[in-house]
Design a protein that fits this description.
A five-stranded mixed β-sheet has the order 5-4-3-6-7, with helices on one face. It has a two-stranded antiparallel sheet with strand order 1-2. It is 39% helix and 18% strand. The protein starts with 8 loop residues before the first helix and ends in an 11-residue tail after the last helix. By secondary structure, it is α+β, with helices and mostly antiparallel strands.
Length: 204
Amino acid sequence: MDLIGERWALLIVRELLLGGRRFGEIRGALEGLSANVLTQRLEGMEKAGILRRRTLPSPANAQVYELTKWGRALEEPIFALSRWAAGSPAHDVTLPLSNTAFMLSLRTMMHPRADPDFAPDLGFRIGGDPFRAKIAGGKLEIERRDPEGADILFAGEPSMLAATFYGRDSLSMSMREGRVTVTGDIALGQRFVDLFSLPKFEND
């Protein structure tokens, strides 16, 4: 907790789990985080060896923050906390969340019962951010890259997509009501959506 227990620290790590991000991108994803506090957290986490700064090559020449190998090892603790929090009786799947948080929720919550032969090329445009994903070894592998040409392409705001993946409505109903847009094989998309549900805990 001395290393990662400050407010916002784990959320910053979460935003970097899918690759390096610019200062403004991190701040934009975390509503309520001031520039001053973000600067303090990034400096502290860099000093601790959790993340590092890197300048992208020309023509971008932009500075990004990315996790070190040790910092990326926080993925499993964060996923474990996410699964625990998702089991809360008061959990609301329609509450706002970042684009990255939604995509990581898919990696966290996908049931391991997926057919080993089920390996669709998956595309996402979440709040405007592009992602590409595939199922490999029973896990969902996700990259930040152009989703065009994928077998199935999901598009929408993260809270609306979360309600579709973790709620009761079918994919077709969500499409009819305008919550999500899907391009490609709808049956394939529903088969993918069926791999997700929230954990349930019995309270004594």
